[in-house]
Write a structure and sequence with these properties.
287 residues, alpha/beta, seven-stranded mixed beta sheet, 7 helices, SAM-dependent_MTases_sf, EC 2.1.1.-, methyltransferase, Methyltransf_11, methyltransferase activity
Length: 287
Amino acid sequence: MGHHRGRAGRKSTTKEPIIQEPEAPEPEATRRDADVTESARANRGWWDRNADEYQTEHGTFLGDDRFVWGPEGLDEVEAELLGPPEELKGRVVLEIGAGAAQCSRWLAAQGARPVALDISHRQLQHALRIGGSFPLVCADAGALPFADGSFDLACSAYGALPFVADPRQVLREVRRVLRPGGRLVFSVTHPIRWAFPDEPGPEGLTVSASYFDRTPYVEQDEEGRAVYVEHHRTLGDRVRDIVASGFRLVDVVEPEWPVWNTSEWGGWSPLRGNLIPGTAIFVCVRD
């Protein structure tokens, strides 16, 4: 899970050695087009460089074996969006954009048979560090290295879909590897957030951009090469992408900010969470 619009340049606080270039200038934030190839290259590199800091900063909130759908803290234990936990036993589940595979670890504890996939080798090294007896696969979500009908369920908590230029390519691939009757549940930044600054305080409550501007958010180096890319789709775009890819949309969940959650995570905060949604979760079925 990770939406870092406007935050990618922060310095690491972890004491472990990290894969990082010598001190480089802060990337320039802009809005411009970025195709499938550039987006994938930029985000693989970004997550490899920033995985250590991400896990240091957010690992406690995510836990080692919890299934959290977003910064609000909605937990699959209560949400049951993949189905009742007792029905997960024996199910083969693909987690897309798994990071350190916290969700897969929870699934394994329910008796499911997860496979954790991520584009970032370094994120999967954190999955190895924490441990688990399920496969870890380093691959692009737009070209899944699995046979047709290999999985009963697929899930993604802020993985892949916010970062890809062609979400339909990913959705079609997920549909291909799901068995008939299989379910895909994925969470992304709520599209309305793109109209507001990515700030947790009061400045994040004033509309500053058009909700309808689909131009990607890009951070680029001095040569103009993208080092981080995030793509905006409106709520309607997401619905059309799901349907056009052959899924049936059965629910859209917009978690409310719970009283217990006092954390800030990038632009997510109790202040904003009480007023505007921060996460959209799409529940889809492959008939």
